Amino acid sequence: MSTSDHDHRRDRDSEATFGEYGGQYVPEALMPAVQELEDAYERYVLENEDGFMDEFRERMRDFGGRPTPLQRAERLSERYDREIYLKREDLVHGGAHKLNNALGQVLLAKYMGKERIIAETGAGQHGTATAMAAAHLDMPCEIYMGRTDINRQRPNVYRMRMNGTEVNPVTAGSGTLKEAINETMRDWATTVETTHYVIGSVVGPHPFPKLVRDFQAVIGQEAREQIRERAGRLPDSVVACAGGGSNTMGTFHAFVPDDEVDLYAVEAGGSSLEIDEENALAPNSATLSTGTDGVLHGAMTKLLQSEDGQIMESHSVSAGLDYAGVGPELSHLVDIGRVTPASVDDEAALNGFHRLSNLEGIIPALESSHALGYLEEQHEELGDLVVVNVSGRGDKDLETVLEETENRDLEAAPDVEVFGQ
Amino acid sequence: MSDIEAAIREHHPALITYLTAGDPSLEDTKAYVEALDRGGADLIELGLPFSEPIAEGPTIQAAINRALDAGTTPAGFFELVDDLETEAPLLVMTYYNMILQYGDEPDVRPFVERAAEAGLSGIIVPDLPAEESDPLRAACDDHGLDLVFIVAPTTEGERLERIMSQASGFVYVQARLGTTGARADVSNATHDSLTRLEEYDVSEPCSDGVPKAVGFGVSEGDHAAEIIEAGADGVIVGSALIDIVAESDDPVADLEAKAEELKRGAIRGADGGTDADPIDAPEPEQP
Ligand SMILES: Cc1ncc(COP(=O)(O)O)c(C=O)c1O
């Protein structure tokens, strides 16, 4: 794999920043742990010490179900009159790309001699993946999850508990991902000597953004090879949804050096891109499109914040995108013009959900549905050959989708009323 | 010598108190700070509330929420400081994003300039480790403000030496792992931290020159005595005072009394301490 070799060499510079973004803005008590992780990242992930990466790849194959297919979407290709390929991360064990990172980090924690795993979760997908990885590798695990998210993602709460993981509800603020991260950081600050915090996206202090990206980079590495095999060339564009940005960075990373490939990061436009100043509320989670530079959860990045620097409550119909920050590397790639930030609103995402379910027999996660909503709206801009990452499957979202669909007049929706009886 | 270091030396052993500005309103904070000043606080930290206080436990987190709900802004915070006339020097404690966002673009300088103008003597930033502190350090140096660093139970070896060599004003010794919050006792971790500080041969001149104050969990006069007796130059108390703000029928009187109790405890610790290594300072006055 010449691409990954090349990437490895380039990544050996273990800088903490991407341009002006990134860094390590954490309480002093956590700094030694962050530096220990930096060391472990360099040795095990970049240098494959003790065969760490070999074991990771083998477990991702046998336990995780990799490689995932790159599927030509026949009816979407027909609908948009261009070649549409879907990278099927919904087929990874657990139903989302999140396992790539969770398994990598839990295994790394084991190599580092840590005894306990903690993590935050928004949609519950990362919590589920971490719970599965922890059970698989026999590590005790606790997950922090916002109250609101617990209510809207119940199937994942059950799944975590089935795997022997403790789920701790977080009631602060709006009870979503941001609050869950705060609470996990507090736990970590108390237990840092024995505990590893499996952060769920390409966010947080260095080395997390690079570590998570490298575990997720397998998505793009596979997709790049697969599309060359299938279509004989690189795609004109690659589209992925962005919450924190882990599936985005994972899908894009192998394509970043390919200047001819356009990269689109699709965020949650929520109900509107306008800020509600009075209530300090962003009715969206479109950080790359509308955010400003600041420091949150350990890194300098783009944020949804007030003029004074208070972090805003964000919104999305999809719990996994509902976050006021975004990965620092994505912020950087947007600033230098390599990644194009985009967004679609809740309704377009819901339509994307129904369209893929109806036309292709794939029920996508509401997060991934944002990428499909963007495809519908902007396919004419995307060239003749398009890869869309389907970051996860939508079983977890059915309750939300039924409820939200009944409230709206959606063009792509089936008649959902029958479900209500 | 900075205002902060001078205050600690002059009033050794020092009582350092923390309140969240704007909890429950800026006017109340003014009265509370003045009460602490009368009660014997030698340095007063004022928290500028940030919405994501990851280093705080439930008590201060709740105080920050009350302050934000009351509409506390950086502008209001600085007006409060403009108005305050206390014997004790004042420090601002806040998170890095609040400092960066003051002014038109992300930059630490406007905040530091305004802090100096308002008469603040120093800044503490719980989410800014030494590794990321160069820009703020430079701005503070230019305006004569101390940038106070935290040393945690996990800080050892080279990192500890580096932090000690960069410290000014005082070194904030975090007594135990975890977040802020009043505790019923002085934990073993506190004793370990103090012993470790004694043991560490931190490089000249700061190990001798910069006072060490211990915080995280201190809530009673007896804790203050124990901590000073074990060799600290000061104790830092926050959550126990915020409990008074949140629960007392007469916070002004109770805060003043609590400060007296804590200060008396500290003095008792200094008198009884045989191991104590007080920095060269005049005998403290009885409050
Ligand atoms: C299926 C799926 N896609 C995307 C996301 C968003 O996260 P990220 O942007 O890190 O990929 C989530 C988060 O939970 C998710 O479950």
TrEMBL record, chain A:
GO cellular component terms listed in the entry, alphabetical order: cytoplasm
Pathway assigned to this chain's UniProt record: Amino-acid biosynthesis; L-tryptophan biosynthesis; L-tryptophan from chorismate: step 5/5
Question: What family does this chain come from, according to its entry?
Answer: Belongs to the TrpB family.
- What role does this protein play? The beta subunit is responsible for the synthesis of L-tryptophan from indole and L-serine.
**Cofactor(s), by name:** pyridoxal 5'-phosphate
List residues modified as N6-(pyridoxal phosphate)lysine.
K98
InterPro entries, per database record? Trp_synth_b_CS, Trp_synth_beta, Trp_synth_beta/beta-like, TrpB-like_PALP, TrpB-like_PALP_sf
Task: Report what the protein is called.
Answer: Tryptophan synthase beta chain
Reply yes or no: does the keyword Ribosomal protein apply: no
This protein's assembly is summarised as:
Tetramer of two alpha and two beta chains.
Q: Name one GO molecular function term.
A: tryptophan synthase activity
One Pfam family, short name:
PALP
Identify the keywords attached in UniProt to this record, alphabetized.
Amino-acid biosynthesis, Aromatic amino acid biosynthesis, Lyase, Pyridoxal phosphate, Tryptophan biosynthesis
What is the enzyme's class at the highest EC level?
lyase
* Reaction(s) catalysed (UniProt annotation): (1S,2R)-1-C-(indol-3-yl)glycerol 3-phosphate + L-serine = D-glyceraldehyde 3-phosphate + L-tryptophan + H2O
**Can you name the source organism?**
Natronorubrum aibiense
Question: Which Enzyme Commission numbers does its entry carry?
Answer: 4.2.1.20
Please report the stretch or stretches of sequence annotated as the Tryptophan synthase beta chain-like PALP domain.
Answer: 64-392
UniProtKB/TrEMBL annotation, chain B:
What pathway does the annotation place this protein in? Amino-acid biosynthesis; L-tryptophan biosynthesis; L-tryptophan from chorismate: step 5/5
- Species of origin reads Natronorubrum aibiense
Biased region (Acidic residues) positions are 277-287
Q: Which Pfam families match?
A: Trp_syntA (PF00290)
Give TM regions.
none
This entry's Enzyme Commission designation comes to 4.2.1.20
Give the protein name, as stated in the record. Answer: Tryptophan synthase alpha chain
> What residues sit in the active site?
E45, E56
Tell me yes or no: is Ribonucleoprotein among this UniProt entry's keywords. no
